[in-house]
């Protein structure tokens, strides 16, 4: 599962590095063609299915327990808030110091507050996203956490059906009766159903589903095949079509990753990827800073090879994520848990 998280974060980084590589190539007078062998932003779909799975798998001790809802929220806030607030603050500081490095105008106070509070708001570019645009996924995550916390107030057997039903009702309200006003228009996008898919996989695993040998390989291969097809079939970028293609691929990949046999000793390369998976949240949030910083450095030194720039930028993003995870994210999470009493 950690390897899959690493690959998901890396896919998003590959998506974001290519426009900057095009700028490096243009400055050097070279041609640059995007590589879209995979729908790189499908890394987000994988994250959402993984999140649904992990919330159920890691919260088994909370179902039906008194005070479970508050304990769950404390855990999730301690895990998500410190690093995201730090990256949002860094983004704002960079915007103040070097506005030309950013692709957006100065946000209003309301937009800044909405960003820190994970509340969907229209940005200066006219789209619903926080000032640090990658946080749009975290706005969805916080919706899911809030619904999950409410579900934990119910008897254990009702928790997951209630959460899945709430997600489905939000989507139905927007798809059948919309457009609805914010924040419901944002929360009602089909992508939120991927959380429910992840929860379903966790239930199946909890009931003993295991994939062995060829079956597991076949499921993983099917997930990759669907991803490749999604990159080449026209019309797979819409709200529902994206979920059907990329969400289905994510479901298959998470199913293969989570329902294998236990007790297998991983090989060294797998352990290395798992370490990156541990830092996948940091990689997701820090890679734009590294990519843009490496672009500016490359332009200043006259680097003329966009392929080399991509390698350096992605390598730098992984190294920065590992350092950030160890030196900031883990200590900050422990400190937040102490403050929140979790």
From TrEMBL:
<protein>
    <submittedName>
        <fullName>Acyltransferase</fullName>
    </submittedName>
</protein>
<dbReference type="GO" id="GO:0000271">
    <property type="term" value="P:polysaccharide biosynthetic process"/>
</dbReference>
<dbReference type="Pfam" id="PF01757">
    <property type="entry name" value="Acyl_transf_3"/>
</dbReference>
<keyword id="KW-0472">Membrane</keyword>
<feature type="transmembrane region" description="Helical">
    <location>
        <begin position="80"/>
        <end position="101"/>
    </location>
</feature>
<dbReference type="InterPro" id="IPR002656">
    <property type="entry name" value="Acyl_transf_3_dom"/>
</dbReference>
<feature type="transmembrane region" description="Helical">
    <location>
        <begin position="272"/>
        <end position="291"/>
    </location>
</feature>
<feature type="transmembrane region" description="Helical">
    <location>
        <begin position="303"/>
        <end position="324"/>
    </location>
</feature>
<feature type="domain" description="Acyltransferase 3">
    <location>
        <begin position="3"/>
        <end position="322"/>
    </location>
</feature>
<feature type="transmembrane region" description="Helical">
    <location>
        <begin position="144"/>
        <end position="172"/>
    </location>
</feature>
<keyword id="KW-1133">Transmembrane helix</keyword>
<keyword id="KW-0812">Transmembrane</keyword>
<feature type="transmembrane region" description="Helical">
    <location>
        <begin position="243"/>
        <end position="260"/>
    </location>
</feature>
<feature type="transmembrane region" description="Helical">
    <location>
        <begin position="213"/>
        <end position="231"/>
    </location>
</feature>
<dbReference type="GO" id="GO:0016020">
    <property type="term" value="C:membrane"/>
</dbReference>
<feature type="transmembrane region" description="Helical">
    <location>
        <begin position="184"/>
        <end position="204"/>
    </location>
</feature>
<feature type="transmembrane region" description="Helical">
    <location>
        <begin position="113"/>
        <end position="132"/>
    </location>
</feature>
<keyword id="KW-0808">Transferase</keyword>
<dbReference type="GO" id="GO:0016747">
    <property type="term" value="F:acyltransferase activity, transferring groups other than amino-acyl groups"/>
</dbReference>
<keyword id="KW-0012">Acyltransferase</keyword>
<feature type="transmembrane region" description="Helical">
    <location>
        <begin position="38"/>
        <end position="59"/>
    </location>
</feature>
<dbReference type="InterPro" id="IPR050879">
    <property type="entry name" value="Acyltransferase_3"/>
</dbReference>
């Amino acid at each position: 599962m950690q390897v899959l998280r690493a690959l998901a974060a890396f896919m998003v980084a590959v998506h974001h590095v290519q426009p900057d590589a095009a700028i490096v190539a243009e400055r050097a007078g070279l041609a640059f063609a995007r590589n879209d062998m995979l729908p790189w932003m499908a890394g987000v779909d994988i994250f959402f299915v993984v999140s649904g799975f992990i919330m159920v798998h890691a919260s088994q001790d909370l179902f039906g327990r008194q005070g479970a809802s508050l304990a769950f929220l404390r855990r999730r806030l301690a895990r998500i808030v410190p690093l995201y607030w730090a990256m949002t603050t860094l983004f704002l500081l960079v915007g103040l110091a070097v506005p030309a490095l950013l692709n957006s105008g100065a946000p209003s106070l309301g937009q800044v507050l909405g960003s820190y509070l994970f509340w969907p708001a229209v940005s200066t570019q006219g789209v619903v996203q926080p000032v640090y645009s990658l946080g749009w996924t975290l706005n969805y995550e916080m919706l899911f956490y809030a619904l999950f916390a409410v579900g934990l107030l119910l008897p254990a057997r009702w928790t997951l059906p209630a959460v899945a039903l709430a997600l489905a009702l939000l989507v139905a309200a927007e798809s059948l009766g919309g457009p609805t006003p914010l924040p419901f228009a944002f929360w009602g996008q089909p992508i939120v159903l991927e959380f429910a898919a992840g929860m379903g996989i966790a239930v199946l695993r909890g009931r003993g589903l295991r994939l062995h040998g060829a079956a597991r390989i076949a499921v993983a291969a099917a997930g990759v095949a669907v991803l490749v097809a999604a990159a080449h079939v026209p019309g797979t970028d819409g709200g529902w079509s994206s979920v059907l293609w990329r969400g289905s691929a994510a479901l298959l990949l998470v199913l293969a990753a989570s329902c294998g046999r236990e007790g297998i000793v991983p090989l060294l390369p797998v352990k290395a990827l798992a370490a990156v998976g541990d830092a996948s949240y940091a990689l997701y949030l820090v890679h734009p800073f590294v990519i843009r910083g490496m672009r500016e450095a490359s332009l200043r030194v006259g680097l003329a090879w966009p392929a080399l720039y991509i390698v350096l930028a992605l390598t730098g993003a992984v190294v920065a994520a590992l350092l950030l995870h160890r030196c900031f994210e883990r200590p900050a999470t422990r400190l937040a848990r102490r403050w929140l009493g979790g």
